[in-house]
Design a protein that fits this description.
Strand content: 15-25%
Strand order of the largest sheet: 3-2-1-4-5-6
Oligomer: single chain
Helix content: 25-40%
Distance between the termini: 27 Å
Length: 487
Amino acid sequence: MKIIILGAGRVGQSVADSLVSERNDITVIDTDAARLRDLESRFDLRGVVGNGIEPAVLAEAGAEDTDLLIACAAQDETNLVCCKIAQLLFNIPKRIARVRTTGFEAHERLVGPEGFAVDRIICPEESLTRYIGKLIEYPEAMQVREFAGGRACLVSVRARVGAPMVGHSIGALRESAPELAMRMVAIYRRFPDEPDRFIACDGSTRIEPGDEVFVLAAHEHIANVLAALHRPASQQLQPVRRIMIAGGGRLGLRLARQLSQAGGRFHIKIIEDHADRCVELASALPPEVLVLQGDTTDEDLLGDEGIEEVDLFLALTDDDEDNIMSCLLAKRMGASRVLALINRRSYADLMHGTQIDIALSPAQAMLGELLAYVRQGDVQAVHSLRRGVAEALEIVARGDRKSSRVVGRKVSDLQLPRDVHIGLIVRGLPDAPETAGAAAADLREPEVIIPRSATVIESNDHVVFFLPNKRLVRDVEKLFRVSATFF
């Protein structure tokens, strides 16, 4: 696929890194020549210096025969205008824009063909807010990713001594709880002086304390799965109630506003360094949200505000170092759980799962929404995992036994690459909106199935895979591609 990326900032670089590794033809446009040279030296892509809203610059980037435009420059206006020019002058089929301003998606005429011609709006703050909300809902999880409209989830959790599932083999766990719709698809194990090592999961694999375990399960079973891997049976779950947010920027404001609408469930404090911004926050948020002016790394301030009673400390400033230091300080002073927003991937790799419970990369949080547009076939959801190395993929089986390599066939007969796991199947989901009305008469409750070797794939099944290496993606997509000339 030929792709133009407008903007070589943090998001643009992360998108380019992910897409180049999948053998796409990538061109990046940016006004900063030095930044483009750095990208060209690290990745197999082409850089074009210039303003992306100038037709001549887009033409130089190859817009005439481009399949996808991803506009993720710093300014919303630049991204929107670039998408419109791409439609009017170059007829680029798919156009995605990063837009931080709220309200555009609610007005279809603004983003439709007669407006700015954006096929999909991506908002980093919205993606992060939604994701952090899931981590608050499941406080034991390190990652939570949804599939099939939220009916199934992929979670990662750190196995702890004394938890019921820890110390047992996966085969033994299946026998002890056959009714539990879950499958362990990967384990990443720590070894001295080396990165976490991928451990393929089979019946003989034993879960050890300290393992980061990836589990696919039906939504209703997630809480039980997390508990069985993370805490002793005698220990009760402590839900998140007291939340402290360090940083009152766009993300901090959006998250505090969302949490304050939960009917008094959360006690929220925001620490912001700038006095003018504190006034803005106080006027934009309900009175029960306490806004404090101060330094997020001030030990006295954290102590005075009862950091030892905080269930979740969220460092969401624009400064990676401040986020890391404030989280380390909060954890040392007694905060139950800490999350740091870290833009630099190398920093996130170092911090994730250490004294900092969760190191969250903004680009990785929204990357899946972009990848779903790049995938071939009927891909419904994509989630980038392990800092972009691994991936979870939801794809729909289409066609029949004559036109498909998977429909009507047993799981054991599928020619899947080694290490690719079919985690689960969601069956009975309504089809696309335009055909949902016709299918209403045959409506059935969707079912989450943990596939066995004898399970037969049916048409319209939503199949969720775990791929430890992204190089395997194309093989899975090819397998699910419908072809009239298969035989």
